[in-house]
Every structure is written in structure tokens, then in C-alpha cells.
Design brief:
amino-acid biosynthesis; 6 helices; mainly alpha; Helix Hairpins; PRib-ATP_PPHydrolase-like; binds phosphoribosyl ATP
Length: 108
């Protein structure tokens, strides 16, 4: 689909790797290792993105961000979360200030 967002396309590729051969697919290898390993990779890539921001270059921030987003799509597929679930939440938050949202949580 020409206008499909790259993250939706990536998610479709990743989800299709469930049950594929771990010898030929890094994604299949992650699925075979399980949720703890996938979650660990998301954490590692998040930390690497932070390190890139604090000590490296904007190009490195971009490439670490791509690693992070890829591993996040693997975690979504592992957890049965679809990209549209996340897009929906972001859409619902549009126009709501983060400061106002935090204040409303404190009032609960
Ligand atoms: N976008 C990515 C992508 N980004 C990063 N990576 C891989 O993520 C790994 C991260 O590197 P690390 O050094 O942190 O990982 P590692 O040391 O190999 O792993 P561990 O020892 O920590 O388990 C590398 O092997 C990268 O190649 C990705 N692997 C796959 N994709 C996409 O997923 C698609 C399917 O890939 P396969 O499942 O491999 O066919 C590809 O066509 C791409 O579109």
C-alpha cells in the first residue's frame, strides 16, 4: 500500500515472522527466545538511544531510534498489540496537554 506508514509495514513483516526459521530471521530468533529477551532488547535499545543523545551524534540518535522502534514492533507482536491500538491512544491524546493530563491523574 503506497500510503501505508513504514511502522505499519514493518509490523506486518515482523508479525509474519512468528514461527519462521530462527536461522534465517533475526525476528524469528527473538520470538523463539521469548518475551523476556524481547523486552530486554527494547530496554537496551532505549538506553543506547539515550547514550547517543548524551554522548554521540544526531545521526546515531536516528539509527538507535530505528533499532528501538524495530524492537518495539517485535514486542507489540509478541504481546498481541497492534500498531493501530497505539495510534488510537496517541490520537485520543492529541490536543490534550501533558501538563493538564498529569494534573487530572493527581486529582484521582
Ligand atoms: N528493522 C530491522 C532491524 N533493526 C535492527 N535489527 C537487528 O537487530 C539486531 C540488533 O543488534 P544487537 O547487536 O543489539 O543484537 P545482537 O547482539 O545480535 O543480539 P543479542 O545478542 O542481544 O540477542 C541486529 O542483528 C540488527 O540487524 C533489525 N532486524 C530486522 N529489521 C526489519 O525486520 C525485517 C525482518 O528481518 P528478519 O526477521 O531478520 O528477516 C527486516 O527486513 C527489517 O525490515
Amino acid at each position: 500500500m503506497a500510503d501505508q506508514h513504514i511502522l505499519d509495514a514493518l509490523y506486518a513483516t515482523v508479525a509474519a515472522r512468528k514461527g519462521a526459521d530462527p536461522n534465517t530471521s533475526y525476528t524469528a530468533k527473538l520470538f523463539a527466545k521469548g518475551t523476556a529477551k524481547i523486552a530486554q532488547k527494547v530496554g537496551e535499545e532505549g538506553v543506547e538511544t539515550v547514550i547517543a543523545a548524551l554522548a554521540e551524534t544526531p545521526d546515531k540518535v536516528a539509527s538507535e531510534s530505528a533499532d528501538l522502534l524495530y524492537h518495539l514492533t517485535v514486542l507489540w507482536a509478541d504481546q498481541g498489540v497492534k500498531p493501530e491500538d497505539v495510534w488510537q491512544i496517541l490520537a485520543e491524546r492529541q490536543g490534550i496537554s501533558g501538563i493538564a493530563e498529569k494534573a487530572s491523574r493527581k486529582a484521582d
